[in-house]
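Design job #97: recover the sequence.
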């Protein structure tokens, strides 16, 4: 299938619109003009006939006498207008006859009219017709006027010139409209296709892995502006994803390198006989293997939670009681680090996957414990929030700590896989960097949302909103 550019299609569409608009209008105008002009010619011919009869009548004198000279002038003037006049008195005596006066001129005139009409209407079937009008004086018939002409109507040279001028005008308007539509269509097509071509070029660069290019040309077209913004957002997102991918590679390599290097050095030392394979040495190797296994397990868990067809086993349970139970399991860890842990709120029943919601709470508490310095405090609050209808009510889980906080530049990425604000990646605060990613995946699966507020040096607040989902 042959493909055409947007510029070509837009230009042709403008021309097509003009053709569709101007051509029917021209044809209809021509037909209406022709129809009404015919009616005008027929009506005007009748008026001329009546006028000539009136003029001839005025030339009648008493006692059956006629002003022959005046009648001749009237009839000769009518002959010039395409009418052949014959005047007769009451006794059928010919007073004046155009054919007798100049038959050759009459035939030439009729031939010229036929030629004019045939040039305008090739299939025109006109013929010579005569109309008889009586002449009366004091209610007595004193004669008659026979007016012959090419009927039922005819166009003289002036009439044809007028019609041809109108037709040329319509053709001129059509040609001018076509040229104008082509120029305007080309201009509009260029205005529309240029930014789209630029978008295509940028998209092609993105497909090749070049994400730094951005579209800066403004556009007054809403859809093109949205397309440009979408492509720019896509490029920015892919650029950020590429940064995260590289960081992920570096993070996984770093996480695996340390335990593998330790294992290698220990095993080589024992093989070379530098170390004896005693329990302490083997225990150290075992710990490194556990670290590697934990990292692999975290990656598998992340893949499970980020799956599009994640399965939720929903039950009705009290989230306040669940949180209270989890906090009891963490009390010893918080006490050992000299961190105050408080729970407030009210009992709220929700319909959700209890195990996965437990994972959310555990991840948030672990995060707070990890980044809160000794002597700090962590507050957990459970509260209901809704718009007054039971099915749309939500429950909020708020975990607020007085820890180190998260830098503003890191906030947009904390839910990304293996992203950690702590670039040092030390063993105390590093972790694998997927806890918050799993948390967000679980919340999204429950049609909820998670927000974070943080200030460096003051602390961090996570707010999880979950629909109650009770029927």
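Job complete. Output follows.
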């Amino acid at each position: 299938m042959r493909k055409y550019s947007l510029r070509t299609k837009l230009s042709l569409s403008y021309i097509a619109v003009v053709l569709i608009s101007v051509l029917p209008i021209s044809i209809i105008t021509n037909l209406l003009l022709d129809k009404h002009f015919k009616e005008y010619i027929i009506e005007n011919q009748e008026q001329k006939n009546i006028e000539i009869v009136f003029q001839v009548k005025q030339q009648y004198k008493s006692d059956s006498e006629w002003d022959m000279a005046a009648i001749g002038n009237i009839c000769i003037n009518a002959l010039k207008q395409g009418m052949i006049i014959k005047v007769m008195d009451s006794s059928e005596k010919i007073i004046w006859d155009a054919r007798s006066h100049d038959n050759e001129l009459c035939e030439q005139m009729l031939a010229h009219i036929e030629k004019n009409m045939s040039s305008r209407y090739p299939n025109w079937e006109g013929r010579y017709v005569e109309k008889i009008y009586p002449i009366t004086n004091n209610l007595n018939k004193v004669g008659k006027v026979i007016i012959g002409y090419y009927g039922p109507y005819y166009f003289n040279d002036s009439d044809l010139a007028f019609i041809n001028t109108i037709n040329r005008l319509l053709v001129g308007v059509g040609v001018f409209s076509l040229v104008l539509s082509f120029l305007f269509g080309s201009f509009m097509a260029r205005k529309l296709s240029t930014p789209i071509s630029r978008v295509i070029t940028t998209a092609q660069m993105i497909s090749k892995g070049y994400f730094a290019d951005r579209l800066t040309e403004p556009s007054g077209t809403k859809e093109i502006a949205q397309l440009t913004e979408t492509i720019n957002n896509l490029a920015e997102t892919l650029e950020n994803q590429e940064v995260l991918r590289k960081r992920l590679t570096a993070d996984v390599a770093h996480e695996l390198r340390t335990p593998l290097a330790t294992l290698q050095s220990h095993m080589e030392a024992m093989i070379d006989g530098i170390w004896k394979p005693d329990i302490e040495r083997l225990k150290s190797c075992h710990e490194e293997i556990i670290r590697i296994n934990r990292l692999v397990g975290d990656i598998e868990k992340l893949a499970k939670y980020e799956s599009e067809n994640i399965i939720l086993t929903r039950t009705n349970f009290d989230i306040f009681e669940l949180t209270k139970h989890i906090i009891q399991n963490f009390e010893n860890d918080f006490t050992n680090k000299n961190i105050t842990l408080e729970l407030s709120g009210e009992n709220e029943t929700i319909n959700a996957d209890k195990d996965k919601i437990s994972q959310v709470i555990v991840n948030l508490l672990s995060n707070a414990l990890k980044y809160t310095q000794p002597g700090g405090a962590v507050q957990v609050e459970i509260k209901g929030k809704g718009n007054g209808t039971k099915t749309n009510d939500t429950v909020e889980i708020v975990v607020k700590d007085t820890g180190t906080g998260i830098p503003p530049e890191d906030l947009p990425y904390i839910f990304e896989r293996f992203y950690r604000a702590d670039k040092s990646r030390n063993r105390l605060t590093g972790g694998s960097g997927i806890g918050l990613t799993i948390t967000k995946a679980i919340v999204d699966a429950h049609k909820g949302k998670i927000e974070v507020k943080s200030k460096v040096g003051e602390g961090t607040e996570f707010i999880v909103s979950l629909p109650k989902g009770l029927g």
